Amino acid sequence: MNIKIKWNWGTGIAIFLVLFILSLIAFILFTLTIKYDLVENNYYDKDIKYQEHIDKTKRFSELAEKPTIKAQNGYVFINFPNVFKKNEIEGDIIFYRPSDKNLDFKMKLDISNDNTQVINMTNKAKGIWIVKVDWSIKDTKYYFEEEILNK
User: More exposed terminus of the chain, fewer Cβ within 10 Å: N or C?
Assistant: First the structure.
């Protein structure tokens, strides 16, 4: 028994539709295997408070002398200008790892007598980190962030 397929425009459309549906199924299965992390777990709460964040960033940009962040030899140095008194500075440092939220960590600002905080990064993952400093002097709040490379 010899079956011959008659090739015409209807057969072409049927083959196209079958291939299209199979490619859609393959794409859907592929997207189900992709792991994605939210930037923030409580995204909506932070969105409501975003104006406060904008105000803190604006205050930071208006400072005459600004704190700096520098990464060198496996250490991160956060330097505050001498116009700020060590005992008046309070806040948090968040180390955000864009590629893996499980590596993120947070610490309190603990400024030494020379207005510098040194953070040891030798035991942390190599690569790009975003250092977010949320700090205040008395009742005035500031925020800045900088991308560093941990080598």
Answer: N
The domain ranges of the chain are: 43-150
Q: What pLDDT, in 10s, does the model give residues 82-103?
A: 888 888 899 999 999 988 888 9
Q: Is 43-150 a CATH 2.30.42.10 domain?
A: no
Helix (H) and strand (E) counts in the chain: 3, 7
Q: Which pLDDT tens digit goes with each residue over 107-150?
A: 999 999 889 999 999 999 999 999 999 999 988 999 999 999 99
3-state secondary structure of 63: coil
pTM (predicted TM-score): 0.70
Helix, strand and coil in the chain, % to nearest 5: 30, 30, 35
- CB atoms near residue 148 (< 10 Å): 17
Kindly write down the DSSP assignment for every residue of 97-121, as one continuous string: -TT-GGG-EEEE----TTSEEEEE-
